[in-house]
């Protein structure tokens, strides 16, 4: 490929997969949902056959052929018609015009250069949050960050939607967030040692299909089965019964969403009342218990945190709570919580509560005891981490210091220059003029989408790279067609998983789609930073370099990897890793010799630092704080607590148009689980179309009536493509079942500024009349191209 007639460094960077490079051995590929053998006929994927070493392959493999060859692929660069003419219009409502690559690249380069010149790097928002692909070279967001850093910087993002509250509170309590991000007790250790495994939020089998960066072997379902076979008692504290195995060793404790902190405080108070707190451990390994104990006993606020007190809040009978406290102290106990608990208002509190309860039990650092998070959230949890050697592309550091918490996206666009609190400091939102998104879908992932849609009209330019016409692509000014992983070569890898998998490009890209890296290289060329961006490497050379770097790192730790050609020919590699020691074992042996990263070096049951921030929504010790929207504040207008769990039928919004997800829809809409009691009260039967709404929005779903969900709670999975009835109007009803038109765009707390997507009240009713509907996955309307492609704007030279 050439840009302005000149080849890039003489080395062509292909938009097509490296068919020229040797592809030995059987085709193989990886995705966040696992490894597979692509079966390809005439350049088209016809099947994704599970990898022979995977003991629990994901059913989502069945969705791949339909997704890769969907009618809604972006096949040519496109620009929003009024934006192209410079006449305003409205993002999301206007038709698009297909343009040539040269025109599209000139337009984007011109917009980047102009924005930077007029407003500085801060005005370019390149956070681009999202999962994108499992391939570690062509990870769109990472490549975008590298590209924008080469240009002199951009406003970025910090933290994540997944565990943003935990990520901020855990460092204050235990010194780092490794109980969420790193090694926790393995399935082997739990099966061998754990008597009681307390799961706040269960261990949903659907979630462990996924691992960011892929996996060669889904081990979690087998792990939990071995734990149950070993006789471990599993307690599923959850508004939902089905998110733990159906097994006699599993006890379901139904609970109101958002109330777990009260349960945890009561369990601690029971241990305290029974004289069953491990006072030796608390004295040796923690600080601040006097403050916490005074609160539990009611000395601080006059409220004794008894089991009866917690029953009124949680709906869990007091007797169940006292029984549970007795069980927890009667043997080896491991406590965990799903990440969902902290994607809520005051989501920091249940996590701090879990750690405090584990400290009272005194088993932190023992094999199969203590606490650890993420079982039932992603595939890796309970496996063995490898602290080295993961192939990864390392972007150039961003020279611009602005980093906005991911969940404050709409606030940033609506309140440029305004101050906000974040983890003890005050920051200001940048004045963003250009939004650049590659590899994420904010019109799936953000809360209160009607609010975001209004905020999103503010920037001057929105650029999106997408393989599909997603809701976010439809909200762009320029859409650049990206390849899927199957259309290029890459490597899947993650430090939480022992597998390296070659992702061999085997499918022809549709139309004019190009790799994100190719697109950004062409922009870099136009803006005078080609060398910095590509390092002089084409895709094949960059892939090889990424692998070789990982190989050197692994060799330095005594793990020889095969040479690149041998790895590529074989298609996969499994590291052989020794069993890890229990987390915090060294700290337990000697807190003085192996201190934590907290100010005291110990577990902080009361944190003077957090207390010193003075946040009323995140005080200095685990505290029950009533959420704004939950069962306790339900009204006749909005009586139902809506949870938006991760979908079992897809990855977020990915694969929504095909296979498993498509087959799950009810009358074309996302299924919504309603309790039998709530269904009866509303005359709702399976298969009915329902209207779900609150003051923020309205969405239409298909009813699934269930006995496995607590009355007063409904479940609507994330990821159904946002389809407003009238994209030209504010707050138009959404036709396809996207929960984020209902969720609140408020932070978990000022400490974390994390999402609070699970703290939501709604109304539900059956819709009798025919309801309008539109195909959520069809491409947008296209207008005729202007008479001739506008002459390429001459981008100002990059400073
Ligand atoms: N209500 C509610 N909302 C939530 C949550 C919740 O619990 N409740 N959970 C939140 C969580 S934890 C998360 S992680 C987020 C997930 O939010 P996202 O990560 O934004 O969701 P995805 O659908 O995975 O978006 C990835 C996008 O990348 C695109 N893509 C894939 N491969 C490529 C590629 O190679 N190149 C380019 N350019 N694009 C590519 C896909 O088509 C897709 O549009 O959602 C959050 N939103
Ligand atoms: N198939 C599939 N798997 C995925 C994903 C996907 O999109 N599809 N997404 C991945 C991503 S990005 C992430 S972050 C993880 C997220 O993983 P999680 O956060 O664990 O996922 P959820 O499905 O939202 O919720 C897990 C469980 O928590 C329970 N729960 C919710 N609120 C409460 C509460 O207040 N109290 C109690 N006790 N329980 C509660 C729910 O009922 C559910 O059983 O999943 C990952 N796995
Ligand atoms: Mo996530």
TrEMBL record:
Residue ranges occupied by any Molybdopterin dinucleotide-binding domain in the UniProt entry: 641-760
Q: Does the keyword NADP apply?
A: no
According to the UniProt record, where is the region Disordered? 773-799
Q: Where is the Molybdopterin oxidoreductase N-terminal domain?
A: 29-69
Residue ranges of domain Molybdopterin oxidoreductase in the record: 73-526
This chain belongs to the protein called: Biotin/methionine sulfoxide reductase
- Where is it found, in Gene Ontology cellular component terms? outer membrane-bounded periplasmic space
InterPro entries with a match to the protein in the record:
Asp_de-COase-like_dom_sf, Molybdopterin_N, MoPterin_dinucl-bd_dom, Mopterin_OxRdtase, Mopterin_OxRdtase_prok_CS, Prok_Mopterin_Oxidored
**Organism expressing this protein natively:** Actinomycetospora cinnamomea
């Amino acid at each position: 490929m050439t840009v302005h007639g000149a080849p890039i460094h003489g080395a062509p960077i292909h938009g097509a997969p490296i068919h020229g490079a040797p592809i030995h051995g059987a085709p193989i590929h990886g995705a966040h949902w696992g490894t597979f053998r692509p079966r390809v006929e005439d350049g088209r994927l016809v099947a994704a056959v599970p990898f022979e070493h995977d003991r629990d392959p994901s059913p989502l493999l069945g969705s791949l052929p339909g997704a890769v060859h969907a009618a809604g692929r972006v096949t040519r660069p496109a620009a929003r018609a009024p934006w192209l003419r410079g006449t305003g219009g409205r993002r999301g409502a206007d038709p698009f015009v297909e343009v040539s690559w040269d025109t599209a690249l000139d337009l984007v380069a011109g917009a980047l250069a102009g924005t930077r010149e007029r407003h500085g790097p801060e005005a370019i928002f390149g956070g681009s949050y999202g999962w994108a692909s499992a391939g570690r070279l062509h990870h769109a967001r990472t490549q975008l960050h590298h590209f924008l850093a080469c240009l002199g910087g951009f406003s970025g993002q910090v933290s994540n939607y997944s565990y943003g509250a935990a990520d901020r509170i855990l460092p204050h309590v235990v010194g780092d967030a490794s109980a969420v991000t790193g090694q926790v007790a393995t399935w082997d250790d739990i099966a061998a040692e754990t008597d009681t495994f307390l799961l706040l939020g269960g261990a949903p089998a659907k979630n462990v299909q996924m691992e960011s960066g892929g996996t060669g072997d889904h081990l979690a379902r087998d792990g939990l089965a071995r734990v149950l076979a070993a006789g471990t008692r599993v307690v599923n504290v959850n508004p939902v019964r089905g998110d733990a195995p159906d097994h006699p060793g599993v006890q379901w404790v139904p609970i109101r969403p958002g109330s777990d902190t009260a349960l945890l405080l009561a369990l601690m108070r029971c241990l305290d009342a029974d004289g069953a707190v491990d006072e030796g451990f608390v004295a040796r390994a923690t600080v601040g218990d006097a403050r916490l104990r005074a609160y539990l006993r009611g000395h601080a606020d006059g409220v004794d945190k008894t089991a009866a007190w917690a029953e009124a809040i949680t709906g869990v009978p007091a007797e169940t709570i006292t029984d549970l406290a007795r069980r927890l102290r009667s043997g080896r106990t491991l406590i965990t919580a799903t990440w969902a608990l902290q994607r809520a208002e005051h989501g920091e509190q249940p996590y701090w509560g879990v750690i405090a309860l584990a400290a009272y039990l005194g088993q932190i650092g023992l094999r199969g005891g203590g606490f650890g998070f993420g079982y039932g959230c992603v595939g890796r949890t309970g496996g063995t981490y490898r602290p080295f050697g993961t192939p990864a592309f390392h972007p150039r550091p961003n020279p611009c210091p602005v980093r906005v918490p991911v969940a404050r996206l709409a606030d940033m666009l609506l309140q440029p220059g305004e101050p906000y609190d974040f983890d003890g400091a005050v920051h200001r939102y940048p004045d963003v003029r250009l939004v650049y998104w590659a590899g994420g879908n904010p019109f799936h992932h953000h809360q209160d989408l009607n609010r975001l849609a209004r905020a999103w009209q503010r920037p001057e330019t929105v650029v999106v790279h997408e393989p599909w016409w997603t809701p976010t692509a439809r909200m762009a000014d320029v859409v650049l067609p990206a390849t899927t992983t199957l259309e290029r070569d890459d490597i899947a890898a993650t430090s939480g998983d022992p597998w390296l998998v070659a992702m061999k490009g085997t499918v022809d890209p549709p139309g004019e789609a190009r790799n994100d890296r190719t697109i950004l290289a062409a922009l870099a060329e136009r803006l005078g930073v080609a060398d910095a961006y590509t390092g002089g490497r084409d895709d094949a050379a960059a892939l090889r370099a990424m692998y070789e770097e990982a190989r050197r790192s692994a060799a330095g730790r005594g793990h020889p990897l095969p040479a690149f050609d041998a790895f590529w020919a074989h298609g996969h590699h499994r590291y052989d890793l020794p069993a890890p020691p229990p987390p915090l074992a060294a700290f337990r042996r000697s807190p003085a010799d192996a201190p934590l990263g907290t100010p005291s070096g110990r577990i902080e049951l009361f944190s003077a630092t957090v207390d010193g921030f003075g946040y009323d929504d995140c005080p200095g010790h685990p505290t029950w704080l009533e959420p704004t929207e939950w069962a306790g504040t339900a009204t006749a207008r909005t009586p139902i607590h809506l949870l938006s769990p991760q979908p079992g039928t897809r990855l977020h919004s990915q694969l929504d148009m095909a296979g498993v997800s498509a087959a799950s829809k009810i009358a074309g809409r996302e299924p919504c689980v309603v309790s039998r009691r709530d269904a009866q009260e509303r005359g709702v039967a399976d298969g009915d179309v329902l209207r779900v709404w609150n003051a923020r929005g309205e969405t239409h779903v298909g009813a699934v009536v269930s006995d496995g969900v607590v009355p007063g709670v409904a479940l609507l999975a994330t990821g159904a493509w946002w389809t407003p009835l009238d994209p030209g109007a504010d707050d138009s009803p959404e036709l396809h079942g996207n929960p984020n038109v209902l969720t609140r765009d408020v932070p978990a707390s000022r400490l974390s500024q994390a999402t609070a997507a699970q703290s939501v009240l709604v109304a539900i009713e059956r819709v009798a009349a025919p309801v309008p509907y539109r195909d959520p996955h069809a491409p947008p309307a296209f207008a005729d191209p202007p008479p001739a492609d506008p002459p390429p704007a001459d981008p100002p030279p990059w400073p």
